[in-house]
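Hi D.,

Good news: the full-assembly prediction came through. Inputs first.
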Amino acid sequence: MTAPVAPRPARYVEHVMGLPVSLALRGRHTTDAHARAAWAEAFAVLREADRVFSTFRADSVVSRLDRGELDESDCPPELHEVLAIGEAARRDSDGAFDVRRDGRLDPSGVVKGWAVERAAAPLRALPDTDFCLSAGGDLTCRTLHPDDAPWRIGVEDPRDARRLVAVVPVRTGAVATSGAAHRGAHVVDARTGLPPAGLGSVTVIAPSLTEADVDATAAYALGPDAARWLTARGRTGLVVGDDGVTTVVG
Amino acid sequence: MQVTITVADRRITDVAVPQYPDGNGKDQQINASALPVLTKETISAQNADIDMVSGATVTSQGYLESLQSALDQAGLA
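Then the structure:
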C-alpha cells in the first residue's frame, strides 16, 4: 500500500552559522526514524562546514589560514574546492566577487550554498521523499514525480520582509537571494569596497545551490550590471531595484 | 527573454509581456516552471501560499518574526 500524499510537509528547524536552517519533507519518510536520521546527518554537514570555514571562529581552518598559521597545502580538500569556486566566480565577475579583499580571506560568499548542497545528500538518499532545504533564505529542493506539485518559493521583498515580490515554482533545483544584508555583513563590489548602487536584491534559480548562491552574490556585487550579467550567463532569476522595479531574467 | 515590470507605490504600472523560450534552454532541464511569477501586488506574508522563503534578510536574529518561522511552526514534526 502506498502512503497517501501528505497535505502539508513535515518541517524541521535548527540554527547554525547565525542562520535558521529549515527543512520541509513530503512523501514516504517525513517523521519516521529514516527522516530524522537524514535531517541529523544534513545538519551535521552544516555544523562541520561552520567548523572549517567560519570567519567568526578563531580556530576554524579559514581563520588559521588567514593568520598564516596554516599553509594552503595543509588544508582539507573541501577548502581547495571552495577556493576554486571562489576563483572562478572572481574571474567570471571581473573581480566584483572575490573571497579575498584587503588582504583578508572570507569565503563566506561561496560556503553557504556549497555546504547546503552537500548537506542535501542524505536527504536525496531518502526513497520516495521530496525535500526543500533552506539555510538563511538560500535553498535547494527535489520533487521526484512529475505529477507532484512544485515547491512554491516566495521571494522576499527587499524593502519589506513581511511581503513577497514573486513566487518561484521549483520542482528540482535551487534558489538563492543576495541583498545588502548577508550574515550581518554587507555585500560589496570587491573592486571598490563599496556596496553596489541601485539594487535591492538579486535572486538566482539554478540546478545547484552552489552556483545559484555564488551567482546571486556576484550579480548583486555588480550592481547596475546584474540583469545583463545574469542574462549573458543564461541564468534564470529576478533583480529587484532599490526603487522596487523588478526584472525577471530567463 | 526578459520581462520588465514597473512598480510604483506597490502597484504595477507597466508590464512588458514576456516571450517564453521555446523549450531548449538549459533552465528548461531543471524545471519547466522555474521562472519567477511576479505577484500582482506584493503579497502580505500571512496570505502567501508558499513552502519556503528566499531572501537576503533571513538570519537567526530576525527569525522569530519572520515569515519563514511562521511556515516552519505550522508543520514542525
